[in-house]
Amino acid sequence: MTDRIKKPKLDRTDPVRNWSAMFGGAAAAAGGNGALSDVIARSVDLGYRVIDEYVRQGQKAAEQLTGGSADFEAMTGSVQEMSVRMAQYTSDVLGMWFQMMGAAMAAPGAAAWTAPASRAEPARSAPPAAAPVAAEPVRVRVEVASTRPVEVGIDLRPGAGLTPLIVHALRAVDPDKPALTATVVANGEPGVLRLRVRIGDDHPPGVYSGLLLDEASGLPVGALSLRVGSA
Amino acid sequence: MTAVAPVAADELELVPELLREYGDATRVALCEYLRPREPRRHLYSLVADYPRRGGRMLRPTLCIAAARAFGGTLEEAVRSAAALELLHNAFLVHDDVEDDSDERRGRPTLHALHGVPVAVNVGDALTVLGLRALIDNGAALGARLALLVLEEAERMARESIEGQAIELGWRRDNAVTLADGDYLEMVLKKTCWYTTIFPLRVGALIGRRRPLEAERFLRFGFFLGAAFQIQDDVLNLAGDPVRYGKELGGDLWEGKRTLMLLHLLRNAAPDERSRLSDFLSEPRRERRAADVAWVRERMDAYGSIAHAQRTAHALAGAARHEGEAVLRDVPGSRDARFIAALPTWVLERR
Question: Which positions in chain B have a beta carbon within 8 angstroms of at least one beta carbon in chain A?
């Protein structure tokens, strides 16, 4: 086996803003012209201002897209944009997603779980109890607080839930319907994935879906859908 | 004049080498989408016109090189590369209509040959064929990765269209008080996303087989793409007419807001600025050769072209710097060296 050739690591970890110094050598080589050096420094400075502002606007838009949910804020930047856009188009690609999930679920030891329709108690309730999603060892507990009947569907890849997950906002096909927020509850109980969703009394009925992602890799590992009935 | 650290000659020779190699592979993949079929006369023979006129194949080559540099294969990346080339040609057909350009790659533009309605339809067909190639990605990449590539393509197309809208709006409103920063923002969207950012991001996505960080390649792609575009604008005024492939001075005829034009607008005397503004407010077909020559001469007098060249060099220097950062953890390879050599190469084009 041959050693991999790697470029030497740069000293900096952030963009360098001192452009005059950075290109000083090159500018000097160009004739030591101070005006030229100024143009170069100004141009690069301007370029960084443009791209930094663009990135900032993108981050702001991503936050607005998720409605500033606590879950999203906890997400790492590494999966931010792709994850957000995946959430935005969940409705569009759900068919494709379930097709992929179907293939994953066909693996031995894997089984999808869907809770039956249930009428929850007024105020807070926890209708669907824990249920196995894979042969072992993960159990899923979805706590739904709602005054209306809610049908819960969850698909998980084998082994999903063994590592920390994040849940996207649950969105309806109709973009005018507000998203629901599901949170992963850390209860310290090994082998149990606990999700909590609260549905306001005035939330429009319909089907809401969102992706579950592995927090570390950002890869989708499942999907959660809720069918919210009328009062 | 250079703000870009020198690159060894053999590194620069890599660029045309890979452009040829990966360009040929992309052309083979394109044949599948450009094969003759009915309605041939009114559509498919015209669809194949621009792609067969040649071109450097920079975008597909960059996509394949990035994929290989990050651990993928040519076979995995070539459909995305073909899709990019199809979408690129779709943009060119529509851009030529919107800009009312006369020449593309040394020949009359499609709408000049066949009329605007036919050309617009051909552009639409190229877009749909590009979409087909992205869907076909599923076979080599699997549904999940193909979907992520499709997401990137949607973003790229949206950014490009927004950039084009900004530029068209400037011309429609006869904007004459733009700053260099406005130009760079427009170029980021109109040029950089589909010329550099998208090929790099999709290539890396295919090579790594997992979603990319949100900002990955944005800075490198922006500086590289902006340097490329400014150099392209300079060549439009001062390039070799045969090698450039478009009408020299075409940007002046179109009233395109280039760095040179913005520099001239800022530095010209008040009476000259007024004359320039009047010139820019006229429809393209009513502009006179004498006025175009006058604008070109004023650009020389005020050093506008030199200003743009310096800016291109500065941005290419920043691109080299950012390139080192994005390639830091990539194993050394011909493909990684190709990517690293691009900032210098964009300035070497004639």
Answer: 1-5, 143-144, 147-148, 151, 155, 180-181, 184-185, 188, 210-215, 218-219, 222-223, 226, 307, 310-311, 313-315, 317-318, 321, 324-325, 327-332
User: How far is Cα B104 from Cα B53, in angstroms, rounded to an integer?
Assistant: 9
Q: Which residue of B has its CA nearest to A218?
A: B211
Work out the average pLDDT over B113-135: 97
- Give the pair of three-digit tokens for residue B3: 């703000």
d(CA B226, CA B192): 6
Q: Are B231 and B149 in contact (CB under 8 A)?
A: no
- Tell me, what DSSP letter sits at residue A196? E
Tell me, what's the pLDDT at A21?
43
- Opening angle at CA B216, ends A47 and B126, nearest 5: 90
| Distance in angstroms (rounded) separating the CA atoms of residues B181 and B197 | 19
Q: Given pLDDT bands bounded at 50, 70 and 90, which one contains residue B199?
A: very high
CB B104 within 8 A of CB B50: yes
pLDDT at residue A109 tops 90? no
| Cis before B39? omega within 30 | yes
Please tell me whether residue B290 adopts helix, strand or coil conformation.
helix
Q: Give Rg (Cα) of chain A.
A: 24
Under a CB-based contact definition with an 8 Å cutoff, are residues B326 and B216 in contact? yes
Per-residue tokens: A128: 């669907």
Contacts of A15 in chain B (CB under 8 A): 219
B332: pLDDT strictly greater than 80: yes
C-beta separation of B314 from B330 below 8 A? no
Return d(Cα B172, Cα B162) in angstroms, integer.
15
Name the band, by pLDDT with cuts 50, 70 and 90, for residue B192: very high
> How many CB atoms sit inside 10 A of residue B80's CB?
33
Nearest-Å Rg of the Cα atoms of chain B is 20
Which residue of chain A has the CA closest to B179? A46
Q: What is the mean pLDDT of residues A209-214?
A: 80
Largest CA distance in chain A: 80
